[in-house]
Amino acid sequence: MHSLSWTTRVISRALRSGFSTLLETTSNATANVSNASKQRPHFVSVVCGFPKDFLTSKYKPGKYGEDSWFKTSTTNADVLGVADGVGGWRNYGIDPGEFSSFLMKTCERLVHCVNFNPQRPVNLLAYSYCELLEQKKPILGSSTACVLVLNRENSTVYTANIGDSGFMVVREGEIIHKSEEQQHYFNTPFQLSLPPPGHGHNVLSDSPDSADTLSFSVMEGDVILVATDGVFDNVPERLLLDVLKECEGVTDPVKLQMTANSLALMARSLSFDSEFMSPFAINARRNNINATVCNLYLYKKARNEAEKMLQYDYRRRSS
């Protein structure tokens, strides 16, 4: 069963370099820090993304295929979040987007509860995950996630990310803060999971407590990108920086939306190019995997093999 969080994940991501229809969801939120009143900074935020398959994906607010997002505000905080559902579950009749969508919708609701602490975004992930586990009808699946909170009272951003969904902060043409991927081994990120009954010991699952947390001050005009691996795996850092630095200080939502659109389109377009050495392809080659020479036949063959690996034992793999 662990193939859900390892083998099928490798396959789907590797193929993004060559086949648009197999592109994993890219969900990103681009935010600009504005300071109309110097004591109360706030985000001017926009969102854009693409599902991997336009023909089969149905539009739902806060959801792009297998990935989900939310953005919301309180009197004292602005909050953004993204979650990346593990696509391999679809091979077993489970919608990967339901898991990530529940996490993000619950995070959004919890932001407006009286006990919300803007300095502890990891609590949002932890409480959302606990609620998911307590559902009478199990919501099976796995997901990475990243939540970012701007505390308006002290102009400080607090972050929590599990796996390879993350963020990037640009100021004066430089990347001043960036999340670090959490990986067990290549292409196997940390993830929150709920496996089918009886398969818990075979499916990779991490605790919300394992989330990487950061806090840093922000200034007016800072640009923040919050995205799933669909962006970071396909677009080199230098290209992201070239795009983001052009909108430093911009507060016009239309212009920011155009930037978000261009980033999402860039990620999708680069995934078409089988010869392009994306960040994912480079990392794959470092691990002796040629991610740019996959084809549909290999994908189908590998997926069939993955379906035969339901009893794959993670403990054997990690030993």
Q: Gist?
A:
By secondary structure, this protein is an alpha+beta fold. Helices cover 30% and strands 26% of the residues. The longest helix has 20 residues, at 253-272.
Search tags:
globular, seven-stranded antiparallel β-sheet, 319 residues, alpha+beta
Q: Tell me the overall shape.
A: globular
Give start-end ranges of low-pLDDT stretches: 1-28, 293-319
Helix/sheet category: alpha+beta
Which percent range fits the helix content? 25-40%
The rounded distance between the terminal residues' Cα atoms is: 17 Å
Number of strands: 14
User: Count of helices?
Assistant: 9
Report on this model:
The chain has nine helices and 14 strands. It starts with 6 loop residues before the first helix and ends with a helix. It has 319 residues and is of the alpha+beta class. The protein has helices spanning 7-15, 96-111, 121-133, 229-232, 237-244, 253-272, 279-286, 296-307, 314-318, and strands at residues 26-34, 42-50, 63-64, 67-73, 77-85, 141-151, 156-162, 166-171, 174-178, 183-185, 188-189, 192-194, 212-217, 223-227. Strands 3, 4, 5, 6, 7, 12 and 13 form a seven-stranded antiparallel sheet that branches. The protein has a five-stranded antiparallel sheet with strand order 2-1-14-8-9. It has a two-stranded antiparallel ribbon with strand order 10-11.
